[in-house]
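Input chain follows. Return structure tokens only.
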Amino acid sequence: MKLLLTTLLGCLVLALPLATGQKIRWCVRSQSELNKCKKLSGKAPDLGCYLQPSVTDCITIIKEGFADAITVDGENVHKGGLKNYELHPIIADKYKKGQEPCYAVAVVKKVTDFTINDLSGKKSCHSCYKMSGGWNLPIGSLISKKIITWEGVDDKSLEKAVSEFFSVSCVPGISKASYPNLCKACKGDCSCTPNENYHGSEGAIRCLKNGGEVAFVCHNKIPEAEKPNYELLCLDGTRKSVDDYKNCHLGKEPAHAVISRKDPDLSERIYKLLSQLPASDLFSSEGGKDLMFSDSASGLIRLPEITDSFLFLKKDYHEIMFALKAKALSRHIKWCNVGHAEKNKCDSLGISDIECLMASSVDECIPKVMRGEMDAFASDGGQVYAADSCGLFVAMAEQYEKDKCNSGDANATSYYVVAVVKKGSGVTWNNLKNRNSCHTGLNRNAGWNVPKGVLCMRKNECDLYNFFKKGCAPGAQPDSNMCELCKGKEKDVGGQWSKCKASTDEMFYGYDGAFRCLVEGGGDVAFIKHSIVPSYTDGNGPNWAKNLKSKDFELICPESPNETKKIDQFKTCNWALVPAHAVLTREDGLSDVVRVLKDAQIKIGPHLFESPGGRNLMFSDSTKCLQEINKSNKEFLTKDYVDIIESNYKTDKNLPDLVRACTLNNYVVEE
């Protein structure tokens, strides 16, 4: 009985999550990895080692808090990021030159002349079943590009669809009994072992030489001496040299990455721990291969905090993963609303083809739309720039002039950014420094990007945190001076739960919020759209603004450094002319989003642009209609505006985390 009790207590200790500040518990999957982990812990005492039988077991216990980290490949970064685990990549391997991960390529004999669109009925050779270069990446890519037609498991298995597409194949590792056609081209037992002459990348190339017509392998597995005999099939229907694999491949395997729970403090502790260990110890594998980290790695890269599995793996890789599962797309659209007030308005519209969902900020909407969890949202030009970096597309734009709604001309959708001050305040362009400022939101168009860009170019003052004494820029770090003027919710006690949030939960968020910050919050200047003051004064505004007069406010601008201008002189006294707010979606959602919104405009008309219980909810209240955009994101934004944005991001340090995460290569190779 005493022995049983001791055993049970020991199991209970293992099952309890450890307190913050204790060892970083690394999950390993083999005795060889455990041996290496223990060796590393001798040089880093804060490292603990936790053996589990599989990657899935490791992912599960990290999710539950019984371990803290594991290094995995792209497929398992994808798995760890799924809803039932919600793990995030926090650190990535950096690779030695020439040893980067696999680019899956389709290798053919140079003497042939078919393209990737002619693969049906060909004899295929694969390195191994479910390996990146031989199966997952090429087959997933061929399905996502609809070269192989597959309707999903309700119709037939993926393997059966592939066996019907090729005439015969050699896919070592697949069940010969279940899919005989996928083993007919093999010379052995169709296993991923030496018992099959065509197993592995070398075997797939031998299969190609001996009667095969296409081989699916990793780019670095083609024998150097044989390269002149082969070419690669590209997804655009062309052929390229085998050395041009970066521009002609069927998918790229991402770097191996450390995944963990979303916990900034834990991520920092993990990175500091690994940084203490010599590279020669981290990236070597005595008694095995790629133990804990890739042997070909030379260092580690800390990923931006906002990075999730989708942002790290990139859109193309996720499309391949989803294609292997035949994920169906819905015809109705899921709208991403920022905050409760927008969600309430969306629900009240009662549009049957729109499902109303909610996120805490636009920065949260962007990756959700990228992943397919949501489909569309509206945002300003600054966020269009960020969304463009993440591969989203402008579908429609707000038009503020009614007579242009029927013209089909969306080129004129734009507005002026103005700096509003109280009449008689004495604030001018020349004495703006060290004043209190009100902003629509961090990295928003009128409220942040434009004033920052103009001050940087005109005054060489590129840091708004230092230029202004204090302010309210919702979305800024809560303990910064740019949150000091923020209020949070009116009904919160002190606004402690919503202060400085980049949503309607913050009283001073958005155009109306920035103007209200000027009126009530102690601001000296508000950066807003030119139409805001007229629409909130002289009896036009909500209750808090009912006594405001437009004549009590003025504009300041670089062109009039020592004086102010009247509110209606915005065309000659402004900080920039910028593009209108726009609706963003994925490329595959463009037609559905445009269809649903056009139909909504017909059915409910101007109600789409009204905001009961708030202002500028979902769309700007000044919107007269939405117009379809048939141009690139950069053309929509215009070169002048892009120049302003990019002047703000001269170095990586100034890039928003979301833009950094979307543009960061998911592996880095040393020069």
